[in-house]
Amino acid sequence: MPTMIPVICEYCTTPFTLRIAEVNRNKKLGRRFFCNRSCAAKYGNAPRKYKQIIRVCPICGDRLISSEKPRSPKFCSRSCASKGSMTKKRRQGSRAGGLAKSANLVPPEIALKKREAWKYDLLKQVLNSRPHEFEYRVGKYIFDLALLDTKVLVEFDGKDHRAAAQKNLDTVKDQTATKAGFMVIRRSVVPVTVIDPSTIEGL
What domain range includes position 143? Predict the structure, then answer.
């Protein structure tokens, strides 16, 4: 009497053999027959697979591949998802949280002093005994250097200040300083370098 009998994998339909005792036991327990663990896993996961569908992003209108799964993607990108999830209530809460912490914010001129301090290392040595201030505020504008004894504001400009749009902004900035009683001097410098003291000679 044979101890092995042929059976068919219920996932890939590949024929294989099992011991009679194992076949009988599986039948009693209501178990299915699979040729390996991979087929068993695939068969078990099959009911959980959802059909792929095409969705339209509600923010930008682009198409995306999604599925019928309840928590499947509904937006084409993280940016759109962020915009779609930002409700009026959440926006108000975010604004309120920011206002509550506004006292912790550092004024722009203080932040610039810390960030740009390395540029002025050589200038500080020359101006050591002279009244001055780096990143000096006049109205809503901040100037690179204020020579307070002569009321001269110095701006160290890179190539980006040659653009027409930037020139217009600089003109408005200079007019604000002039109304406040200052003279504005602009010096061209190489960006991301320590400023040479010769740029302020005669000021």
Answer: 108-200
